[in-house]
């Protein structure tokens, strides 16, 4: 009788241990699959964010370039105007000197 009880206990423990090992490996495989899927989802989300940010950066760079060109043209215009006014001022100084009885 004790042999039957001992055999039953050994069979039950052996079956339980085999079930434990099977579940352990199955859970490990499921966990790896879930981690891989999660990593893929995260990668796609971050890639979308990077793409959006790259588009924004490109847009901002274009706007900055336009503003830079605009102000460079304005600066050139005003530099030319200043030169013309300096020349006119020099002519008026000379005319003033002549009118005052100089040269």
Structure report:
It is a single chain. By secondary structure, the chain is an all-alpha fold. It has one helix spanning 2-99. The chain has one helix and no strands. The chain is rod-shaped. The N and C termini lie far apart (144 Å).
Count of individual helical segments: 1
Distance between the amino and carboxyl termini: 144 Å
- How big a fraction of the residues is strand? under 5%
Structural class: mainly alpha
SSE pattern: H
Average pLDDT number:
85
Instruction: Compute the CA-based radius of gyration.
Output: 44 Å
Q: How many DSSP-defined strands?
A: 0
What's the overall geometry? rod-shaped
Helix-strand blueprint:
Blueprint: H1 2-99
Short description:
The chain has one helix spanning 2-99. By secondary structure, the protein is mostly helical.
